[in-house]
């Protein structure tokens, strides 16, 4: 069984390329370096229909809810703030926690 932490981000099209590169080269590696998530996936949402923004999903997998709670308690706020301040006013994000059944 796995726990999936899904982060969906709507990013302004005018900074999309910069944001994707930052996510791939900086943010996602920093999240994975913590050692809580055992794998990840990074997707562009194709069904999103908005001329000003484009959406992406980042999925992080961890074996237990306890591991995820450790991430939230000790690491999430700093990483979220880093993303928010770097792309302030240029994105929206929402997070979903799912359990494999």
Structure description:
With 101 residues, the chain is α+β, with helices and mostly antiparallel strands. It has one domain: 2-Layer Sandwich (Alpha-Beta Plaits), CATH 3.30.70.100. 40% of the residues lie in helices and 35% in strands. It has helices at 16-33, 65-86, and strands at residues 3-12, 39-44, 53-62, 91-99. A 4-stranded antiparallel β-sheet has the order 2-3-1-4, covered by helices on one side. Strand 2 and strand 3 form a beta hairpin. The model has no long low-confidence stretch (mean pLDDT 95).
Number of helices: 2
Gyration radius, to the nearest Å?
14 Å
- Specify the oligomeric state: single chain
Tally of domains: 1
**Which structural class do you get from the secondary structure elements?**
alpha+beta
What fraction of the residues are assigned to beta strands by DSSP?
A: 25-35%
Counting DSSP E segments of at least 2 residues, the number of strands comes to: 4
> Could you please say which CATH topology applies here?
Alpha-Beta Plaits
Summarize the main sheet: 4 strands, antiparallel
Summary, kept brief:
This protein has 101 residues and is of the alpha+beta class. It is built from 2 helices and 4 strands.
Features of this protein?
alpha+beta, 40% helix, Alpha-Beta Plaits, four-stranded antiparallel beta sheet, 101 residues, globular
Topology:
Layout: E1 3-12, H1 16-33, E2 39-44, E3 53-62, H2 65-86, E4 91-99
Antiparallel strand pairs: 1-3, 1-4, 2-3
């Amino acid at each position: 069984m796995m726990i999936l932490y899904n982060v969906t981000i709507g990013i302004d099209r005018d900074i999309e390329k910069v944001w994707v590169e930052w996510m791939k080269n900086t943010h996602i590696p920093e999240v994975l370096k913590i050692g809580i998530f055992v794998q990840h996936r990074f997707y562009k949402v194709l069904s999103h229909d908005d001329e000003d923004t484009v959406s992406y999903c980042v999925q992080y997998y961890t074996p237990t809810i306890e591991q995820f709670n450790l991430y939230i308690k000790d690491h999430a706020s700093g990483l979220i703030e880093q993303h928010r301040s770097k792309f302030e006013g240029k994105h929206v994000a929402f997070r979903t926690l799912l359990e494999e059944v």
